[in-house]
Every structure is written in structure tokens, then in C-alpha cells.
Design brief:
Elements lengths: L1 H18 L6 H25 L3 E3 L3 H26 L5 H24 L3 E3 L4 H27 L6
Helix pairs in contact: 1-3, 2-3, 2-5, 3-4, 4-5
Length: 157
């Protein structure tokens, strides 16, 4: 059941991202996606496999649902959030967007626990909140570094 839900959610999020009006260029979206994907994979590997703070399922379909959450849902939700933030709204709207996205991430973590895809052994949702805020900050820093480096390149403005 977990696979079906996360498969549906991943396709829904990809469709939302595909049809939304993007404020970032394709190369900027790709760069931010890859940075978040690298951070998400490495973080989950350290927390789950090395420190064993979270126990993930050994079942094949459940594990695939976990992979969809880690490798598709989280990076694309960060991209959706980042494109909404780049729209140049007020600070209050940006804060609401960040809070709503973190709440959505926590809902997905809760859903993963509920469907027995993951089990928090020495972990809790407060750590998840810090992790998702860290991913948001990482996306902002990566984007700003990319913009600063790309200004120095010829042919890109």
C-alpha cells in the first residue's frame, strides 16, 4: 500500500512541477534538484544505514516507496517551493510557503511511518523539521552560488 501511495504522490508532485509557472531557468532548476538529491541521498544513508536512527522496511515495494520519497518527492517539493519563493512575494508569503512545505514534508514522514515504510528508533519529527529547513537553506545557498558563478560566464545572464 505504501508503494501505491508514494507512487501516486510522486507523479502528482512531478505533474504539479511540470505545469506550474517556473521563475527559475531550466539549468537553475536542474542544479538545485541535483544538489538537493545528493544531500537527501547522503543524509538518508548516514541516518538510516550508518547510525541506524531510522529503521526502513526490508519489503521490496515498501523500500521502493521509501526511494520515491527520498529521490523524487523531496527534491521536487523543494523545487516547487523554491520556484514559489522566487516569485518575489512579500516576506510573510515566503514564510507561509516555507512553513507549509515543512508541514507537508512532516505529513509525508508521518505517512511513511504509518505505512511501516520507516520506523523512528532514535529519531523524531523535530529532527525532520530541522532536516527539511536545512534542505531549504541548502537550496538557497546553492542557487545563490550558482547565480554568482554564472554571472562571470559569457553568454549567461
Amino acid at each position: 500500500m505504501g508503494f501505491v501511495i508514494f507512487f501516486f504522490l510522486s507523479w502528482l508532485i512531478i505533474l504539479i512541477f511540470s505545469f506550474m509557472q517556473k521563475k527559475l531557468l531550466l539549468i537553475e532548476n536542474t542544479f538545485v534538484f541535483l544538489i538537493i538529491l545528493i544531500a537527501s541521498i547522503n543524509f538518508s544513508w548516514i541516518v538510516i544505514d550508518e547510525f541506524q536512527l531510522i529503521i526502513r522496511t526490508k519489503e521490496g515495494f515498501g523500500y521502493t516507496g521509501y526511494l520515491l520519497n527520498r529521490s523524487v518527492i523531496i527534491p521536487f517539493l523543494i523545487l516547487i517551493q523554491f520556484n514559489l519563493l522566487a516569485a518575489g512575494q512579500t516576506l510573510m508569503k515566503k514564510g507561509i510557503i516555507v512553513i507549509c512545505s515543512v508541514i507537508l514534508f512532516i505529513i509525508f514522514s508521518f505517512l511513511s511511518n504509518l505505512l511501516n515504510i520507516t520506523d523512528y528508533k532514535n529519531w523524531h519529527y523535530g529532527y525532520d523539521i530541522v532536516y527539511f529547513i536545512f534542505l531549504d537553506l541548502l537550496a538557497i545557498i546553492a542557487y545563490r552560488i550558482f547565480k554568482r558563478v554564472s554571472r562571470n560566464e559569457v553568454g549567461y545572464s
